[in-house]
């Protein structure tokens, strides 16, 4: 103090003005912070992230402004404050409602259209139209069933035309001791005569020792088919009778070829199957066998494919005799004869001539003593003799037999039966 006068005091600012200035300063700071925050977000945010952020509360803004002022006074860089841990993960807020990018609108279900009927008419449901394809399908099924039934009836008609059942009964009455052979013959004939369309002719070969009934069966077949077929469609060929001299081989070949060609041509016109029975085939010359083999080929005209050839020979008779004597104690079933004996005979015959390559071999086995007695009985009844049992046994005992564990097998079969009965 100088001169005793008091020093002047500074003017006091009213409290109301100080508050308003602070508010204005906070507003300015808030605006600046918003501008800084927006610029920082645009520069630092990754692509695709929304710039909308949460706005901090006024108290937090004030604290941040004070910290910024202190940083300016202390000379610390402002950027250092933005990298603090409390600013590293800011929380953002916006007053706009959240927008879902994966929002999918629900598809509205289409309402079924209501069929409107006139008020003056009655309401009827639309008539259901039947598909024509269903009718065509039913018609096709009916046609197929009719064709199947017709084919079955045709099979029965063909078998009835040839009277196969009558042939089977005739063979059962007139043939003794060859049940397996007769079953094989009937099976082959039934299968072949069931239809008139074939890919190759049927060739049946009767093989076995002398006197077992091969030629007898051939005569029964010829007699039966002559009776059931009106025309002459059965041809019996005996080699020793039709071609006794081998020097006339060319003439015999031509004669056989003409007979077969003429018969198959006439049979094709009348839709019948001819039967050729050739006996004593073992005496045929090679040229005659070649001629016959030419008619058995599958690749020829249709009339030559519809025919039955029965070849009768004693080729393989020794093999049949050996097989029967070795297996006399066991029962010779048809399946065993077909599998073992027929196969071995077929191999033997095919090696003799290619004629037997496509043939069905039917072996005729040795006859037992009981079968020989039946042969005597049948022959004596046919000749008008009284069938005395003791007399029959006496005649059967005069023949020669193979004695085995399975019984007695006749050496010559029934071949001498007729001569014995004629001496009575």
Short account of what is shown:
The strands form two sheets. A five-stranded parallel sheet has the order 2-3-4-1-5, sandwiched between helices. It has a two-stranded antiparallel ribbon with strand order 6-7.
Radius of gyration: 59 Å
Proportion of strand residues: 5-15%
Number of helices: 17
By secondary-structure content and strand pairing, the structural class works out as alpha/beta
Q: pLDDT under 50 segments (min length 5)?
A: 1-16, 78-89
| SSE sequence, one letter per element | HHHHHHHEHEHHEHHEHHEHHEEH
Average pLDDT across residues? 78
Question: What is the strand tally?
Answer: 7
Anisotropy-based shape = elongated
> What portion of residues is helical?
40-55%
Query: Distance N terminus to C terminus?
Result: 198 Å
Widest beta sheet: strand line-up: 2-3-4-1-5
Sheet with the most strands, sense and barrel status:
5 strands, parallel
Using brief descriptors, characterize the structure shown.
424 residues, alpha/beta, 5-stranded parallel beta sheet, two-stranded antiparallel ribbon, 7 strands, elongated
Structure report:
- By secondary structure, this protein is of the alpha/beta class.
- 53% of the residues lie in helices and 8% in strands.
- The protein contains 17 helices and seven strands.
- The chain has helices spanning 15-44, 58-74, 78-81, 85-88, 132-162, 164-174, 179-193, 214-228, 239-242, 249-269, 286-294, 302-305, 317-326, 334-352, 369-383, 389-396, 417-422; strands at 202-207, 234-238, 275-279, 308-313, 360-363, 401-404, 407-410.
- It starts with 14 loop residues before the first helix and ends with a helix.
């Amino acid at each position: 103090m100088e001169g005793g006068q008091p020093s002047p005091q500074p003017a006091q600012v009213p409290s109301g003005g100080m508050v308003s200035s602070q508010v204005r300063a906070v507003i300015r700071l808030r605006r600046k912070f918003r501008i800084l925050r927006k610029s920082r977000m645009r520069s630092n945010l990754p692509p695709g992230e929304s710039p909308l952020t949460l706005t901090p509360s006024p108290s937090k803004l004030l604290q941040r402004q004070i910290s910024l002022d202190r940083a300016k006074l202390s000379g610390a860089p402002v950027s250092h404050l933005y990298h603090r841990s409390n600013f590293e993960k800011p929380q953002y807020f916006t007053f706009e409602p959240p927008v879902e990018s994966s929002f999918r609108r629900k598809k509205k279900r289409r309402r079924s259209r209501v069929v409107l009927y006139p008020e003056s008419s009655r309401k009827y449901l639309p008539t259901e139209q039947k598909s024509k394809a269903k009718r065509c399908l039913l018609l096709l099924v009916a046609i197929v069933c009719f064709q199947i039934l017709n084919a079955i009836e045709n099979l029965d008609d063909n078998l009835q035309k040839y009277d196969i059942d009558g042939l089977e009964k005739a063979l059962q009455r007139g043939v003794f001791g060859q049940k397996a052979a007769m079953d094989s013959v009937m099976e082959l004939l039934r299968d072949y005569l069931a239809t008139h369309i074939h890919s190759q002719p049927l060739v049946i070969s009767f093989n076995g020792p002398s006197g077992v009934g091969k030629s007898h069966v051939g005569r029964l077949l010829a007699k039966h088919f002559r009776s059931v077929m009106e025309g002459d469609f059965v041809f019996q060929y005996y080699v020793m009778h039709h071609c006794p001299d081998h020097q006339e081989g060319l003439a015999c070949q031509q004669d056989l070829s003409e007979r077969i060609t003429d018969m198959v041509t006439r049979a094709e016109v009348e839709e019948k199957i001819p039967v050729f029975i050739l006996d004593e085939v073992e005496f045929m010359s090679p040229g005659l066998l070649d001629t016959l083999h030419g008619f058995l080929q599958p690749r020829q005209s249709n009339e030559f494919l519809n025919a039955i050839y029965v070849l009768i020979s004693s080729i393989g008779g020794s093999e049949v005799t050996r097989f029967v004597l070795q297996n006399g104690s066991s029962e010779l079933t048809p399946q065993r004869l077909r599998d073992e004996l027929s196969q071995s005979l077929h191999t033997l015959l095919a090696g003799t001539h290619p004629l037997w390559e496509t043939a069905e071999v039917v072996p005729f086995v040795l006859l037992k003593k009981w079968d020989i007695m039946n042969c005597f009985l049948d022959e004596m009844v046919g000749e008008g003799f009284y069938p005395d049992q003791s007399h029959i046994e006496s005649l059967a005992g005069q023949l020669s037999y193979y004695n085995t564990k399975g019984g007695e097998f006749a050496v010559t079969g029934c071949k001498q039966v007729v001569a014995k009965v004629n001496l009575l």
